[in-house]
Specification:
The complex is a heterodimer of chains A (627) and B (347).
Chain A (H helix, E strand, L loop, with lengths): L11 E4 L2 E9 L4 H15 L2 E7 L14 E9 L12 E4 L2 H7 L8 E5 L5 H6 L16 E5 L1 H8 L7 H6 L1 H12 L5 H11 L3 H20 L5 E4 L8 E7 H16 L3 E5 L6 H8 L6 E5 L3 H13 L3 E6 L1 H17 L3 E7 L16 H6 L9 E3 L5 H16 L2 E7 H5 L1 E5 L19 E2 L5 E2 L25 E3 L14 H16 L10 E2 L7 E6 L3 H13 L4 E6 L1 E3 L5 H7 L2 E6 L4 H10 L4 E4 L8 H13 L1
Parallel strand pairs in A: 1-8, 2-5, 5-6, 6-7, 10-11, 10-12, 12-13, 13-15, 14-15, 21-22, 21-24, 24-25
Antiparallel strand pairs in A: 2-4, 3-4, 9-16, 14-23, 17-18, 20-22
Chain B lengths: L34 H16 L6 E5 L14 E4 L5 H11 L4 E7 H7 L1 H10 L4 E6 L34 H7 L4 E6 L3 H12 L5 E6 L19 H4 E3 L7 E2 L5 E6 L4 E6 L16 H7 L9 E8 L5 H16 L4 H6 L3 E4 L2
Parallel strand pairs in B: 1-2, 1-3, 3-4, 4-6, 5-6, 7-11
Antiparallel strand pairs in B: 5-11, 8-9, 9-10
Helix pairs in contact in B: 1-6, 2-9, 3-4
Classes of the chains: A alpha/beta (627), B alpha/beta (347).
Bound molecules: iron/sulfur cluster (SF4).
The site of iron/sulfur cluster has 11 residues of chain B, from loops.
């Protein structure tokens, strides 16, 4: 039998509302592909889901060691899901290292599916197991399935013309087939995927397909699994969906922004984890008039982007915290020149190199104020992987309309995490074509028409954007302070004061052009507000849901705009007796809120390089709500 | 379109232009006697020859005395950040083939803080002209030694003499795979303009070192090359296709030095005197020419050392976009967002 049907089961089928699975193994075990395919099958079935890949810190750590462990977690459910889940219900481990590294996260009573072939005494010793935990009673609180993944795969492939190594390598597809059976996943697309990905080497494609089917059949026939599980589709609004990661959504949002503004996209970037995938993705889409420039360093990346903006392109640079440090001087030049520029900071754990593959929200203050001089810059933060798409478009709107650098904050959690995305109707996206200056806008002392590059729009305070090539508007820009209106070099004290205040007023004024902070306070009786920003949206939302279920009235709000804050932010803060601000830093938003509104807030901070668990947030929120 | 290869995509101005058309209304503020005045005057008088539309010219500079250049030209211009002009110009040139982009830099701006951008712009061969004003000193910050100052230089920051060995800007540019490398002198207007002309005929990155006098902080640094009695014995005027001979009486020549594989001075009538070939793809001889000057200005070649054809980076970038568009069709946003695995919810 081939793995193509989910109906007509001989064994018991149990319906469950949600499951959290974590796949773990060596980085060479194909864990990410396995997780990714299982997620695609799950998305197609119509479950809501959220994923969390976890990459090893080292690229090629020795096989079978703790630093080499890679994992992929997903939560899927018949209702809407906000996080990849705190604790897996099911842990699939390809070797002892994967068990050792992940066991602590498994929920009590959870299920372990272990590739017993790899639990050799050598592999066990390597990660410090004196005895085989599968054999002693150390896993007593869990359900353990010992599966001979490697040897069964090799056995299933024995008639194929491939070596033992290649046969063993197909074991992840055996595991995928087995889990696809266990959770009633549709498999056609995985089979198609194998054809597409490995079609160039037909023997490998056949091996993977055979292993996948063998895994499925094993599930169907083995005594090991007496029951299989069904998770019904989650209710979602009508439309076309796909699964998307934050970095892909960001790249596509930038392409969309280029289309909506009518400006060609220019990305100047230097490779850096976890931002490089945006560079990779955009580099594939040249036919969208996308220029990607892999620069010699972070400074050249942003410099080239600003140069392109000067010429009338949508200049973008993508990086992580260390890169933003280097780009600071150029961002300040962008503030002085008043040119559009989008700086995407995919935050990671710092300071310095920190933990590049781990997530954090500790660049907020740098984004807000990390420049020399008074150099205000609008700051936006995406709240979920798919929200990176909308945030990119919004960043482009603000950058081009107000002629200003904009910093867009994402982080490692959003960048690599994925969720279902209701694909927007392209025709319904806003028209963002900016206006370019084409004619002189003033007169000189003799009454001759002249171009005043720093004569501002009365409402937005934006200056005219005259790109080279525009006849009659030749002018010089520079980092030196400019006279109001003419843009000539000026050391006049009053003028400098005016220009500093005007640049600030321009950014502050954006508060009139963004939506108010929305508060979710179902019956309006809450006295405690939970206020988050960025990628904590999912965990905070999941926690608030639980806290309410426990009978507490709490309100929730989430900031997408960090500079300027939405106009009603102060009012919202003052409305509640207690405001709790969870952040993956030591209280950076809290500092800004206190300083801006003279309202005290209660910080909840964790900087472990991992997203918050809902459990810890529930505790933290209830402690405050009960106080 | 322009008859100058570097600007073949830049629109021309049919009207008769003069140097005055390129002067901005800003008062020029270099110190009296500064070599920059001569360079500016030569540049302004050369621009009409290009016949380009003023609005399609962009001068990008960094920070330093030389970097004030854009303010004095009635074109588009950006006075940017210390050292970063080549990076900014790269973004501009890549996205706007219809512009004639010039970078003005100095020995501190281009070789110290911005050294990385300079070498990478040259190696990529971005279609920009880079004029490096070398006065062997930091002028704007009032007289510290620079990366081209001779070792032992006594300045405010090195009262006991500087310790570091200087760069040879041309050797550096050649080592960075520059496709066009030249040297000229601020006071030799005719030569300077001829070098600018040849730089404009070169598609790709054109690097020109201009030896420039800073009368305030490093006066007469290049005096041996300017003194009418001494200069002809020290200056080697390179001309493509001609024998490399020099000297007040034309009695000296340049030939290969078999012991070092470099070059050496010989008698002008030596049959081994080299014929200068700026188009030689192998950079070895151009590099050897750049090493003739030992730092003491005894044998200083000026003119075009190297001018070879190599596709420019910005053109390759545009070609890639055009090829992708031709073979895959122009990008369609809806198609992008809905490609791959999708599913429909019919609630
Ligand atoms: S300091 Fe030197 S280089 Fe600068 S303007 Fe004065 S003379 Fe010219």
């Amino acid at each position: 039998m081939t793995a193509s049907t989910t109906s007509a089961r001989d064994k018991d089928v149990r319906r469950v509302p949600r499951v959290v699975i974590r796949f773990a193994g060596d980085s060479g075990d194909g864990i990410q592909v396995t997780g990714d395919r299982f997620t695609s099958e799950t998305a197609e079935l119509g479950n809501d889901l959220a994923t969390l890949p976890n990459f090893p810190a080292e690229i090629r750590a020795p096989a079978g060691t703790l630093p080499g462990v890679s994992s992929f977690q997903l939560q899927f459910a018949d209702h809407d899901v906000l996080t990849p889940g705190d604790h897996p219900d099911v842990l699939v481990v390809m070797n002892p290292a994967a068990l050792r590294a992940n066991l602590a996260d498994l929920r009590a009573g959870g299920r372990i599916i272990a590739n017993v072939d790899e639990f050799t005494s050598r592999n066990l010793r390597r990660v410090g197991y004196g005895a085989n935990p599968l054999d002693d009673d150390s896993l007593e609180g869990y359900t353990v399935h010992q599966v001979k993944l490697t040897s069964m795969t090799v056995e299933a492939l024995k008639d194929l013309d491939i070596g033992k190594k290649d046969a063993e390598r197909a074991k992840n597809f055996f595991a995928l087939g087995m889990l696809s059976w266990l959770y009633h996943r549709p498999v056609e697309r995985t089979l198609a995927f194998i054809e597409k990905r490995f079609g160039k080497v037909p023997e490998i494609a056949r091996a993977n397909t055979t292993a996948f089917n063998a895994g499925w059949n094993y599930g169907e026939t083995t005594e090991e699994f007496a029951v299989s599980y069904e998770i019904r589709p989650a209710p979602m609004s009508r439309g076309l969906y796909r699964r998307i990661t934050g970095n892909t959504a960001l790249a596509w949002g930038l392409i969309a922004a280029s289309r909506l503004t009518g400006l060609s996209l220019f990305l100047g970037a230097y490779p850096i984890t976890p931002a490089s995938d945006v560079l990779h993705e955009l580099s594939r889409h040249k036919r969208f008039d996308v220029h990607t420039f892999q620069a010699e360093d972070e400074i050249a990346g942003v410099g080239a982007a600003l140069g392109a903006s000067y010429g009338g392109a949508l200049g973008v640079t993508t990086t992580s915290g260390p890169g933003v440090s280097l780009k600071g001087e150029t961002i300040s030049l962008g503030v002085a020149l008043e040119l559009p520029l989008i700086v995407c900071d995919i935050q990671r754990a710092g300071p310095s190199t920190g933990m590049p593959t781990k997530t954090e929200q500790a660049d907020l203050l740098m984004a807000y104020a990390g420049r020399h001089g008074e150099a205000p810059v609008p700051v936006l933060a995406a709240r979920s992987p798919s929200d990176c798409f909308d945030t990119a478009i919004e960043a482009a709107r603000i950058a081009t309309k107000y002629r200003t650098p904009v910093i867009l904050l994402s982080d490692g959690y959003l960048a690599n995490g994925s969720e279902p995305w209701h694909i927007p109707d392209v025709a319904a996206l806003p028209d963002l074509h900016p206006e370019f200056a084409r004619e002189p806008n003033g007169t000189d002392a003799k009454g001759n028409p002249v171009f005043l590059p720093y004569l501002r729009d009365a409402e937005t305070l934006a200056r005219p954007w005259a790109v080279p090539g525009t006849k009659g508007l030749e002018h010089r820009l520079g980092g030196l302070e400019k006279a109001d209106g003419t843009g000539h070099i000026s050391y006049d004290p009053e003028n400098h004061d005016l220009m500093v205040r005007t640049r600030q007023a321009k950014v502050d004024g954006i508060a009139r052009d963004i939506p108010p902070l929305e508060v979710d306070d179902p019956d309006g009786s809450a006295r405690t507000l939970v206020l988050g920003w960025g990628s904590t949206y999912g965990p905070v939302g999941a926690a608030v849901r639980e806290v309410r279920a426990h009978g507490h009235a709490v309100a929730q709000a989430h900031l997408n705009y960090l500079n300027p804050f939405p106009a009603n932010t102060g009012e919202v803060l003052r409305h509640y007796d207690r405001v709790i601000v969870p952040e993956m830093n030591l209280g950076q938003l809290a500092l800004l809120l206190r300083a801006t509104y003279l309202v005290d807030v209660i910080s909840y901070n964790k900087v472990r390089g991992l997203p918050f668990t809902s459990t810890e947030l529930i505790d933290a929120i209830e402690k405050v709500a009960d106080a | 379109m322009s008859r100058f290869a570097a600007f073949d995509l830049v629109p021309v101005d049919e009207s008769k232009q003069t140097a005055k058309d390129f002067k901005s209304d800003q008062e020029v503020r270099w110190c009296p006697g500064c070599g920059d005045y001569a360079i500016l005057a030569a540049f302004q008088s050369f621009l009409p020859e290009l016949g380009l539309r003023r609005e399609n010219m962009v001068i990008v500079s960094g920070i330093g005395c030389s970097s004030r250049f854009p303010y004095y030209l009635n074109t588009y211009g950006m006075h940017s950040i210390h050292g970063r002009a080549p990076a900014i110009a790269t973004g501009l040139a890549c996205s706007r083939p219809d512009l004639s982009v010039w970078v003005m830099t100095g020995d501190g701006d281009g070789l110290s803080i911005g050294g990385n951008h300079l070498v990478h712009a040259l190696r990529r061969n971005v279609n920009v002209r880079i004029l490096l004003f070398n006065n062997r000193i930091y002028g704007l910050t009032k007289g510290q030694y620079s990366p081209t100052s001779e070792q032992g230089k006594v300045t405010k920051s090195t009262p006991y003499g500087s310790l570091d060995a200087p760069f040879n800007p041309l050797s550096l540019a050649l080592g960075a795979e520059a496709s066009f490398v030249a040297r000229t002198v601020d006071s030799d207007r005719k030569h300077l303009i001829e070098v600018l002309r040849q730089a404009s005929e070169h598609k790709g990155a054109a690097f020109v070192e201009i030896l420039q006098n800073c009368p305030i902080y490093n006066d007469d640094a290049f005096e041996p090359l300017k003194d009418p009695d001494a200069r002809d014995d020290r200056t080697i005027r390179l001309a493509h296709g001609e024998r490399i001979v020099f000297g007040a009486n034309g009695d000296k020549g340049i030939r290969r030095d078999p012991t070092t594989a470099g070059l050496e001075v010989c008698a002008a009538d030596d049959p081994a005197v080299l014929v200068h070939d700026a188009t030689q793809p192998d950079p070895t001889t151009a590099f050897a020419l750049s090493r003739l000057d030992d730092g003491a200005l005894s044998n200083v070649p000026i003119g075009v050392f190297r001018s070879v054809d190599r596709p420019s980076y910005d053109q390759l970038m545009r070609d890639q976009i055009a090829d992708a568009t031709r073979s895959q069709g122009e990008g369609d946003l809806h198609e992008l967002l809905t490609a791959g695995d999708t599913w429909r919810v019919d609630a």
